[in-house]
Amino acid sequence: MAKDEATFPAGGEKPVPAYREPDRQAIPGLLAELHQEIVHSSGISFARFMEAALYHPEGGYYARPGRQVGRLGDFFTSVSVGPLFGQLLAQHLASFFSHQPGPVRILELGAHDGQLARDILEALTQEHPDLLPRLEYAIIEPLPSLAARQRELLAPFSAHLRIVETPHALDPRPGILVANELIDALTCHRIESTGDGWDELGVGLDPEGSFIWKSLGPAAPPLIFGLPSRPAGYRTEVRPQLAAFLAPLAPCISPGKMLFIDYGFEREDYFDPARTDGTLETFQAHRRGGHPLQDPGSRDLTAHVDFSALREALEALGGQVEHFTNQARFLTEIARPWLLKLEGRTDRETAKLLRNFQTLTHPAQLGSRFHIMEASFR
Ligand SMILES: C[S@@+](CC[C@H](N)C(=O)[O-])C[C@H]1O[C@@H](n2cnc3c(N)ncnc32)[C@H](O)[C@@H]1O
């Protein structure tokens, strides 16, 4: 997420509103489930805790009503800067589709309320109307509450829209998968070095019933495969499920591409010896730093993306990583013709668009924090 409170709103967003108390109404069911699971198994993995905290059908952070993304929510993303992000992505997608005759698909994951889809579809309608009749915009959305929000926001494009719960509902079709800030929201396991190995760090309960970190013993081999050794006490996060998660998606964009935009590092940086406590973060009302185990369901949980692991998962599925670069370089390349057209214009609308572009690309804002990884599948 564009969760840099200090710098982000410069692109035209108004100042962040005052802290608001979260709505805790739906949480008791989620708490009872987690307590019960922990008591029965004497500890659960952090991945299971995160799954419930974010995606429990009633109490999960993303399943609950209210805004999570944007000025009135808990964090910003590039989508909240304004429609420019979607407009630039639309140019990129259209240039790929110009070489693909016949029916094509944009497949979005992590579409949230549908705002990016709307920005992309509006831009395509304006700039590439010939593409629309052969385009399906598919969204894979497991949460019914978000699917309903997407249907509402995308009602003007219902003729092109398909929202499904799983990739298995989609036939093969040439296309591009787009996912902005999806991987950082996928569940992760926490592990802790013992000096000569790794333990899994799970979640238990203290005598008062509060959630606490609890060692679950030696980590299973898939969690620590290929990891460098680190001194005792070093903690980090891993997502061993990436290849299994991506596998059913590849046939839905065949032939095609997968485009991931997110924050994170390559392996060397991700497991830097100085990064002794990983990258797990919480966000609530634009503030970071709350305890990850406190009030599950009331705050966002996220961990950076290990782009080396993502690359390996894509390659294991037969994908070829064609681009890995930062958001500044990626968007500036796409925007070149657009920027040339704006040269010499001094009106307010142009000034606003250029401010938005700067927010998306300036290294001190979103330009170097976010990276894109694009892989092709034949
Ligand atoms: C940080 S938000 C990003 C929202 C949006 N893409 C944006 O950039 O504003 C992460 C989103 O990923 C969704 N998500 C997480 N796991 C998912 C999965 N397995 N399939 C589809 N969406 C998922 C969450 O529900 C949430 O809406």
From TrEMBL:
SUPFAM superfamilies xrefs: S-adenosyl-L-methionine-dependent methyltransferases
Keyword Ribonucleoprotein: no
Pfam families linked: Methyltransf_28 (PF02636)
InterPro entries the record matches: NDUFAF7 (IPR003788), NDUFAF7_sf (IPR038375), SAM-dependent_MTases_sf (IPR029063)
This protein's record includes keyword Zinc: no
Chain positions covered by the region annotation Disordered: 1-20
GO molecular function: protein-arginine omega-N symmetric methyltransferase activity
Record keywords: Methyltransferase, Transferase
UniProt record, GO biological process: methylation
Highest taxon, organism lineage: Bacteria
Protein name as annotated: SAM-dependent MidA family methyltransferase
Organism: Haloferula luteola
